[in-house]
Amino acid sequence: MLQRLTAGGFERLIAVRFAGPPVTFPPLDSLQWHGSLRAFGWGLRATSATILSVVLFVTFIGIGALAHDTHFSMLWAILSTVLVWAGPAQIILVSTLGSGQTILQSAIAVTMSAIRLFPMVVAVLPLIRGPKTRRRHLVLIAHFTAVTLWVECYRFLPHVPRERRIAFVHGLGTGLMGVALVATIIGYLLAANLSQTFGAAVLLLTPLAFLFSTLRNAKELADVLALGLGLVLYPLAARLNSGVDILVSGVGAGTLAFAVHKWRERREAA
Amino acid sequence: MSDFIGDWHALVVLLVAGVIPNQIWRLLGLWFGSGLDEGSDLLMWVKAVATAILAGVIAQIVVQPPGALASVPWGLRYGAIVAGLGAFLATRRSIFAGVVCGEAVMLAGTWWLG
Q1: Residues 6 or more apart from A263 whose CB is under 8 A from it?
Q2: Which of A64, A70, B20, B62 is the most buried (most CB within 10 A)?
Q3: Long-range contacts of the stretch A164-168 (C-beta < 8 A, 24+)
Q4: How far is it, in rounded angstroms, from Cα A26 to Cα A159?
Q5: A194, A65 in Cβ contact below 8 A?
Q6: Which positions 229-248 of A are in contact with B (Cβ < 8 Å)?
Q7: d(C-alpha A205, C-alpha A98), whole Å
Q8: Are A112 and B26 in contact (CB < 8 Å)?
Q9: Which chain A residues contact residue B80 at CB under 8 A?
Q10: Which residues of B fall within a CB distance of 8 Å from A9?
Q11: Cβ atoms of residues A220 and A247 within 8 Å
Q12: Pick the residue with more confidence: B53 or B78?
């Protein structure tokens, strides 16, 4: 009881305190969904209905500060948020370049971390596509796709009429990117005044938020296994020092999780 | 103004090592995504690998920490993640409770260690 109270209470508190009350969408057949601009507006407003906006804000303060401390320019930090649009990739990029690794090593590490965007885009698009949708209508959505948008599409889109989903996700993506952009600039400007402890706390936020949001979204045993095995195998793979450690541990752990899933499926069928 | 823009070489590096490596996967998803069945074995495997790669990214930040996080002793970094995980599970999967608990443990630890 107490647990439920504190957990729910915390989230409600943060939602009201920092992000306004949760958005409740109009019914699917409402006139409020009439026109793309309105749907865009609902998407924009939905940004304030997710705790992940707060996480995003703090994460990108960290990224802005990290970019400043590694002597990149403000424009560099802004462009990395708008054009890369993937928190972990940006952290890996800045920290590898900052620690003196070559551009090639850094590009490989970022490419490895970005592979996850492929299945995310593949999974998000069927939720958005309608019978008349052309591929070029989905380019911006593919660009906006990252872990936060991916998670929130599953939550919000069932409440959005299908023909308005493109506009809605454009609004949601714009809102999330706006939050991250403002945070990047604030973090960059504040960096000189941030204490080391605060900087460390901000950087720890990314692994915590990623771990828990992926775990909450894990619906099947294969997902949980892939996550757990991936966490355990990476430190072992890192001992190889191959330059592609994340790929080695990722493919290994993912394939193992998939094999266990298939094995269980077959056993249940038999 | 030149402070704002910085050196163009760094912007080229951003394009080569940051923008292209990310956008290529998004474009591939856009290109091949329409042909893949949501329940197919191939997509299932790709998803499992993607999750495991994300786990690798999480582990990398904790095991080989960037920037200021490197000043926190390893025991405290691992402890914070484990404590956050405990809070996340105890609160029936509240992301917020997990994040706050993990951060609180790290901050309390650094304060205690001085």
Answers
A1: none
A2: A64
A3: A164/A33, A164/A36, A164/A39, A165/A39, A165/A127, A165/A128, A165/A130, A166/A36, A166/A128, A166/A133, A166/A137, A166/A138, A166/A141, A167/A36, A167/A37, A167/A39, A167/A40, A167/A43, A168/A39, A168/A40, A168/A42, A168/A43, A168/A46
A4: 8
A5: yes
A6: 229-231, 233-235, 237-238, 245-247
A7: 20
A8: no
A9: 204, 208
A10: none
A11: no
A12: B78
ipTM for the complex shown: 0.85
> Best residue in B43, B58, B78 to probe A by mutation, most A CBs within 10 Å?
B58
Q: B68 and A200: CB-CB below 8 Å? A: yes
Q: To 10 degrees, the CA torsion angle through A128, A132, A137, A142?
A: 30
Tokens of residue A217, six digits: 């979204």
Complete DSSP assignment for A219-248: -SHHHHHHHHHHHHHHHHHHTT--S-HHHH
Side-chain-side CA neighbours of residue B4 (13 Å): 3
DSSP assignment string, A97-128: HHTT--HHHHHHHHHHHHTTHHHHHHHHHHHH
Contact predicate A10/B97, CB 8 Å: yes
Using CA atoms, how far residue A66 sits from A45, A61, A92, A198, in Å, is 29, 9, 11, 12
Q: Angle CA(B66)–CA(B68)–CA(B69) in degrees, nearest 5?
A: 65
Alpha-carbon distance values, B40 to A129, B34, B47 (Å)? 19, 13, 11
What is the average pLDDT across A55-63?
87
Nearest Cβ partner of A91 from B47, B61, B107? B61
Cβ burial of A241 (10 Å; 0-12, 13-18, 19+) is exposed
CA distance A110 to A90: 8
**A107-139 pLDDT tens trace:** 987 887 788 898 889 888 888 988 888 888 999
Whether the pLDDT of residue A72 is over 50: the answer is yes
The closest alpha carbon to A261, from A214, A224, A222, belongs to A222
Closest CA–CA distance from residue A268 to any residue of chain B (Å): 17
Dist CA A61 CA A180 (whole Å)? 8
Q: Which of A147, A204, A211, A99 has its CA nearest to residue B56?
A: A211
| A44 alpha-carbon distance from chain centroid | 17
